[in-house]
Specification:
The protein has one domain (3-162). It is 64% helix and 3% strand. The protein has 8 helices and 2 strands. It has helices spanning 8-32, 41-66, 77-82, 86-102, 106-111, 121-128, 131-135, 146-162, and strands at residues 3-5, 70-72. The chain has a two-stranded antiparallel sheet. The longest helix is centred in the N-terminal third of the chain and has 26 residues, at 41-66. The protein is globular, with a radius of gyration of 16 Å.
């Protein structure tokens, strides 16, 4: 398997950059009245970059958490997540479940075609594991669990902040 070297701070900085872009796109969608489903030319304008930025940010956060000198060149979120320490996985899932319970915009999300369901965390992760590779070429209609990915990303971000994964020596941009 091919590997590359990248400092943890650089991984986390890039993860945060892609996360911020995802959040901007998310806000545009919710203030503009776009529906994400069904996928159409208007929603695709935002859906493809939304999915790719979210998935890549998740990937980079996890790779930063692994703190390995050589970073594996894989994009499969479930495989990367499973490489984390059991305690880290448990804490991230706990953060995820807490964020879902605290969410107050259920009705607003439904109006935009985003649906909550009873699928478990690991089932969602498996469904979304290859989002980056399947959506980056803009010809995918594969499932993208928007709510899961949003809260998964926010859980990874919160976990990285709480556990000081990076030393925060990079500027807040």
């Amino acid at each position: 398997m091919k590997t590359t070297s990248m400092p943890v701070n650089t991984l986390i900085m890039k993860a945060e950059s892609f996360r911020k872009t995802f959040i901007i796109l998310w806000k545009i969608i919710f203030t503009s009245g776009f529906n994400l489903r069904p996928l159409n030319p208007d929603s695709a304008t935002f859906m493809f970059p939304l999915a790719v930025n979210c998935a890549l940010s998740c990937e980079l956060f996890i790779k930063g958490m692994l703190k390995e000198e050589k970073i594996k060149r894989i994009h499969t979120l479930s495989k990367l997540f499973n490489e984390l320490k059991e305690e880290s996985k448990r804490d991230i899932i706990l953060i995820y479940e807490t964020l879902i319970k605290e969410e107050t915009n259920h009705e607003e999300h439904l109006r935009h075609g985003i649906v909550y369901d009873k699928t478990t965390f690991y089932e969602h992760l498996e469904i979304c594991s290859n989002t980056f590779t399947k959506w980056r070429y803009s010809n995918s209609t594969n499932e993208f669990k928007t709510i899961f990915m949003y809260f998964f990303l926010e859980s990874l971000y919160k976990f990285s902040q709480e556990n000081e994964i990076a030393d925060n020596s990079f500027p807040d941009y």
